[in-house]
Amino acid sequence: MTWTIRAFGSRRAAPELERPTALALQGGGAYGAFAWGVLDRLLEEPSFRPAGISGASAGAVNAVVAATGYLTAGREGARTALRLLWEQVGKMSLFSPLGLPGAGLQFDLLSRILSPYQFNPLNINPLRDVLNDLVDFERLRGKSGFPLFISATDVSTGTQRIFRETELSIDVLMASACIPYISQAVEIEGRAYWDGGFSSNPPIMPLVLELGCGELLLVKLTPECEPALPTTAPEIFARLKRILFNAPLLHDLDALREMQALLHRTRLLPADLRRLRDLKLRQIAIDDSFFSAANGSALDPNPDQLARLHDAGRRAAQDYWVQRQAAGRS
């Protein structure tokens, strides 16, 4: 398992176990089951309660489902809700033709010729029904278990929009997960939205600026490194998509590092800027082996693949937690 922990900040800050942790969940289709595994393991810890969660696409789905489960029955409720979500996603894949040999390539070619407005004029999306069954959006808008930051991309301007927990609806969630060559754009308040991963994958700056967190845990569904050079057309397009979806995150992380570097130049700072200066950034990243041709794709959430991703996420979260505890005792 390839995963990375990075830390920035002062050694004189409070012990790490005392710092509230915010979670940022990247999008990535079926690979979101890796983040499910991470959350599943962390929520086993009685001392773990996220200060807030941001998410794009699959990350947004994980965040909202976890929040509604947490509101119902705490940590165990969140774990149960996430398990139900991914079990339903796996069942949906059993009826999808994308699991057949060569179907993924055929669909990729088809999507370059026909738009979802042509091959799916009724805009049928089974995921919408699953989420409507699992999430009580009205209740979440009134009282969320923790703050939420859900990103979507404005089709007209290409800019991000961050929806908060008080704005949540099924349309907001479907907008955040709207891949434009698969699904029709989602209209909210007269504006059309696509997948949040195009502009903010996941939201970082609103999360760290608005919450009093001392640590940010970023769960990445793109590997830290993919050393193998892609040479076939499908491999090249797949790698290009991952690079494009990872670009907004890299931009936000660079901005955060530059901001922290500037803040370290002076000691005369108010408390909120000292917190930002000393913010710890941790990363758990999916292993690049999941992106080989033999391991399926983000559009093919077959149950076996989801189980492997979940287990890998749990292992990565276990390693993170052990190191976090060790750092808190040092």
Question: What features would you describe in this structure?
Answer:
There is one protein chain. With 330 residues, the protein is of the alpha/beta class. It has helices at residues 32-42, 58-93, 103-111, 116-119, 126-134, 137-142, 170-176, 205-210, 233-263, 271-277, 303-329, and strands at residues 21-25, 52-56, 148-154, 160-164, 186-188, 191-195, 215-220, 280-285. Strands 1, 2, 3, 4, 5, 6, 7 and 8 form an eight-stranded mixed β-sheet that branches. A hairpin with a 5-residue loop joins strand 3 and strand 4 (160-164). Helix 1 (32-42) crosses helix 11 (303-329) and helix 9 packs across helix 10. The two termini are 26 Å apart. The model is unreliable at 1-17 and 97-103 (pLDDT under 50).
* Percent in strands: 5-15%
Radius of gyration over all CA atoms, rounded: 19 Å
Number of helices: 11
How far apart the termini lie comes to: 26 Å
Helix content: 40-55%
**What is the chain-wise order of helices and strands?**
EHEHHHHHEEHEEHEHHEH
Major β-sheet profile: 8 strands, mixed
Shape assignment:
globular
Give unreliable regions as ranges.
1-17, 97-103
Mean pLDDT: 86
Structural class: alpha/beta
Looking at this protein, list some descriptive labels.
330 residues, single chain, alpha/beta, 8-stranded mixed β-sheet
What is this structure, in a nutshell?
By secondary structure, the chain is an alpha/beta fold. Helix content is 46%, strand content 13%.
SSE diagram, text form:
Blueprint: E1 21-25, H1 32-42, E2 52-56, H2 58-93, H3 103-111, H4 116-119, H5 126-134, H6 137-142, E3 148-154, E4 160-164, H7 170-176, E5 186-188, E6 191-195, H8 205-210, E7 215-220, H9 233-263, H10 271-277, E8 280-285, H11 303-329
Parallel strand pairs: 1-2, 1-7, 2-3, 7-8
Antiparallel strand pairs: 3-4, 3-6, 5-6
Helix pairs in contact: 1-2, 1-11, 2-5, 9-10
